[in-house]
Design goal:
With about 300 residues, the protein is an alpha/beta fold. It has eleven helices and twelve strands. The chain has an eight-stranded mixed β-sheet with strand order 4-3-2-1-5-6-8-11, with helices on both faces. It has a two-stranded parallel sheet with strand order 7-12. The longest helix has 25 residues. The model has no long low-confidence stretch (mean pLDDT about 95).
């Protein structure tokens, strides 16, 4: 089986994907910013332009998930730089190392985000052909993808997944939504009419595996479920599954703007994003609807 090198392997998606790949017989190695005694973990330091060469030489595919958490901290000037550098500089370092070592790399599969289209609420359904938005998050995604596309220069098949909100049992946005609902304090955010393009973590990880298995996959794909939901719909549906009532009305927008600053836009705005392109490749979603996804994650 192929050897797969994963960056961001200790993150929410990386952990799940690593285990899934190993269960299917793939050899998985991880790049880590910390030294480790584990034989499948290799050290890299972006600030020192260093990657353990062995990690690259023996890899058939690189799955690049590394990047500072978009919603982990307020977007100060220094944080914005970190959000861009943690994506662009890491990609450039991987590219330089691949150029230097010239491994028999069969594919470079990278993450991006639906933030590419801009944080807006509209009636439009965005597809991969649409232009990027004009806000900070769209800039991050544009630069991120531009860096990843450099692998095409090396004739390495490149696949980029513009990922929606990842629903998982072990952290992420869904668990943050679940906690107040369980306590009876959950409520829609702002108008509640903003769309939330989402994807079950199993479907997302299966997309990455499909990108390894299917040589016809190349370019950009939206990694979102087919069903379009609003923040209000998600909140009410999750409350039903948890058998809880929503006692508080919508939380006003100004509260989030005061608390989060510019970053609040990722909670308050959102449009629909199409999954048609990935579906047309033959990929089958296990969780195409919200209800089945929530039930599977609440067991």
């Amino acid at each position: 089986m192929y050897s797969i090198l994963i960056t961001g392997g200790t993150g929410l998606v990386g952990k799940h994907l690593s285990l899934l790949l190993q269960s299917k017989g793939y050899h998985v190695t991880i790049l880590s910013r910390k030294h480790s005694k584990k034989t499948n973990v290799f050290y890299w330091n972006v600030n020192k332009n260093y990657i353990d060469s062995e990690a690259i030489i023996n890899s058939d595919y690189i799955i690049h998930l590394a990047g500072a958490g978009i919603a982990n901290k307020r977007w100060s000037k220094s944080r914005k730089k970190e959000l861009i550098d943690s994506r662009v500089k890491t990609t450039n370092l991987l590219l330089r190392k691949v150029k230097e070592l010239n491994p028999s790399l069969k594919g470079f599969i990278a993450a991006s985000g639906i933030g590419y289209y801009g944080a807006i609420t509209s009636s439009k359904i965005f597809t991969e052909k649409d232009k990027n938005g004009s806000d900070f998050l769209s800039l991050v995604c544009k630069l991120w993808e531009k860096a990843s596309y450099q692998f095409n220069i090396l004739n390495v098949r490149t696949v980029i997944f513009r990922t929606g909100i990842v629903f998982s049992k072990k952290g992420g946005a869904l668990q943050k939504i679940k906690k107040p609902i369980k306590l009876g304090f959950g409520s829609p955010i702002g108008s509640g009419n903003q769309f939330m393009p989402w994807i079950h973590i199993e479907d997302l990880c299966n997309m990455y595996i499909e990108a390894i298995k299917n040589p016809n996959l190349k370019g950009i794909y939206n990694a979102v479920a087919p069903e379009h939901i609003t923040n209000k719909f998600l909140t009410l549906e999750f409350a039903k599954i948890l058998n809880k009532k929503i006692w508080i009305s919508n939380i006003p927008e100004f509260a989030f703007k005061i608390l989060l600053g510019e970053m609040a836009i990722i909670l308050l705005k959102g449009s629909r994003v199409s999954s048609d392109k990935i579906s047309k490749t033959g990929f089958k979603f296990k969780f195409s609807g919200l209800k089945s996804a929530l039930l599977s994650l609440n067991k």
